[in-house]
């Protein structure tokens, strides 16, 4: 009995600590110090996305990759220095785009409010606006993150690979205090954007290392596989881009779930959502509709992801330029 009581106390204390850490971010954090920050980010995002709508996907993905490695601390934005290779130059991040644009938006924010707004917060706002300007949900972004000073390429092994199965996905998400619902909800970020052929061509030509046309991922629907093969004719294709949500890859909608439900998810990890009863039911329900419910879920999970291991208070710094520490 005594040990159960101790356990209960520990659970309460841990839960309170988690809530307190999350509570350190605040939607009105820059209310006094930089009231125009959201308007500046929005103005820049509207400009950029009207010229290049395909930037929305990379910016959403960049925030995710930031949060999964050392928390949402802008570490993904730092350049490599001398012998120390930063996250940015690790394999999963070589396909990220938009670093120059983040730097431009940060410069615009710096001009209005010098040394005040972190790169991590600028990126969180850009990701929210990327979704909203793609006709997805809007949410208030809790702010007050500080920027880290460390970025280590090897730590990107905390990012889920496209080959991951359900167990690996849930473990990698759980390591960031994100649960199975967050996994199925946030995976729908794949309703916008594009992917290189090499991120999934093993499913078409080399699923078990045999390198032949019969060595395919059996979970991928065959007609879709044929279509993907015509777009990605070989394993060595390093340049071709494929729409992640064919037909509506610029619009944040339920398209992702409709494709996954038909076994047409682009990555093995997308298909893996059909291998668990809970995530499968979520995919099937949202393939059939309930966009409002999905939008509310996505907003909630983004706020949760945006809280992962954040630096606050006197921790870290407010970088002047996002690619280098002060
Ligand atoms: C669940 C595990 C996930 C895996 C394994 C995964 C993997 C990938 C891969 C391999 C790409 C293609 C990269 C390329 O070849 O260019 C990609 C693209 C993308 N991912 Fe994920 N991802 C995951 C979760 C997420 C989450 C949580 C989000 C955001 C909430 C997200 C947003 C995106 C977006 C928007 C793109 C398109 C990027 C572009 O247009 O350049 N992904 N993802």
Automatic annotation (TrEMBL):
> Do you know which Pfam families this protein is assigned to?
peroxidase
Site (Transition state stabilizer) at: 61
Give all cystine bridges in this chain.
Answer: 34-113, 67-72, 119-322, 197-232
Cited InterPro entries: Haem_peroxidase, Peroxidase_pln, Peroxidases_AS, Peroxidases_heam-ligand_BS, Secretory_peroxidase
Chain residues that bind substrate: 160
| PROSITE patterns, alphabetized | PEROXIDASE_1, PEROXIDASE_2, PEROXIDASE_4
Tell me the organism: Zizania palustris
Residue sites binding Ca(2+) 2 per the record: 191, 245, 253
Query: Which interval of the chain is the signal sequence?
Result: 1-23
Q: Where is the active site?
A: 65
- The protein's required cofactors: Ca(2+); heme b
Function comment:
Removal of H(2)O(2), oxidation of toxic reductants, biosynthesis and degradation of lignin, suberization, auxin catabolism, response to environmental stresses such as wounding, pathogen attack and oxidative stress. These functions might be dependent on each isozyme/isoform in each plant tissue.
E.C. number: 1.11.1.7
**Residues annotated for Ca(2+) 1 binding in this entry:** 66, 69, 71, 73, 75, 87
- Molecular-function annotations in GO: heme binding; lactoperoxidase activity; metal ion binding
The record's comment on protein family reads:
Belongs to the peroxidase family. Ascorbate peroxidase subfamily.
Binding annotation for heme b: 190
**How is the cofactor bound here?**
Binds 2 calcium ions per subunit. Binds 1 heme b (iron(II)-protoporphyrin IX) group per subunit.
Q: Where is the Plant heme peroxidase family profile domain?
A: 24-326
The residues forming a coiled coil are none
Q: What is this protein's record name? A: Peroxidase 1
What keywords tag this UniProt record? Answer: Calcium, Disulfide bond, Glycoprotein, Heme, Hydrogen peroxide, Iron, Metal-binding, Oxidoreductase, Peroxidase, Secreted, Signal
Q: Which PANTHER family does the entry mention? A: PEROXIDASE 25-RELATED (PTHR31235)
Q: What does the entry give for GO biological process?
A: hydrogen peroxide catabolic process; response to oxidative stress
Catalysed reaction per UniProt? 2 a phenolic donor + H2O2 = 2 a phenolic radical donor + 2 H2O
